[in-house]
TrEMBL record:
<protein>
    <submittedName>
        <fullName>Uncharacterized protein</fullName>
    </submittedName>
</protein>
<feature type="signal peptide">
    <location>
        <begin position="1"/>
        <end position="23"/>
    </location>
</feature>
<keyword id="KW-0732">Signal</keyword>
Length: 203
């Protein structure tokens, strides 16, 4: 898919932002628990450098929202179709986010030697950025079949797996939870969107 022209303005200062009305309070509370800043309106605090050690405030403008609206409207037939459309929205968002932050394009899988490097993102950065986008989409009324839930994790060293986080959506009807995880994908590639139970079993 050709990357859509997302006009996102980057600003240097990072200010505390109020919570958007109607957004998932549980998901927003996750940001506070991590010491991060959740989205407010169409403003997102983009995380990079691993563990959100570097932050940059961006504003998502009407062009992105209009394009996201068109994609999600095309996926209005079913929850499955909406998830496919979300994959397109997230893939374009990650591409433009990487370009907006600058530096070397993010390397999938967060290799240890890239820790602290400008523009590189570990799973916490990816999770925060994806959850922020999903909350903006939800606040704008663009999600028909899903709601945004707090991020989830898997692995804790003792089970032989490194800890890993992902953004989560849940079907409004069935309550089934889905991982939305771009961590193994390069910017601009479609994220993994799979049942949370399956994601948890992965390594």
């Amino acid at each position: 898919m050709k990357a859509m022209p997302l006009f996102i303005s980057a600003v240097l200062s990072v200010l505390p932002l109020s919570s958007p009305a109607g957004a998932s309070q549980a998901a927003l509370s996750w940001f506070q628990s991590q010491g991060y800043v959740g989205p407010a309106g169409t403003r997102i605090i983009a995380c990079h450098g691993y563990g959100c050690s570097r932050r940059q405030a961006i504003s998502v403008d009407g062009t992105l929202l209009s394009r996201a609206s068109a994609l999600l409207k095309s996926g209005s037939a079913s929850p499955e179709a909406e998830r496919r459309a979300l994959g397109q929205v997230v893939s374009a968002y990650t591409a433009y986010l990487a370009a907006s932050i600058g530096g070397r394009p993010d390397i999938p899988g967060s290799p240890a030697q890239m820790s602290g490097v400008h523009g590189q993102m570990d799973c916490l950065d990816e999770t925060a950025n994806t959850t922020s986008l999903l909350l903006v989409l939800q606040e704008q009324g663009l999600l028909t079949y899903h709601r945004v839930e707090p991020p989830e994790s898997r692995g804790f060293f003792l089970d032989g797996r490194y800890p890993h986080f992902t953004a989560i959506i849940a079907e409004k009807g069935s309550g089934q939870e889905w991982a939305v995880d771009p961590w193994r994908r390069a910017p601009g590639q479609r994220p993994e969107i799979l049942p949370l139970i399956q994601w948890r079993q992965d390594s």
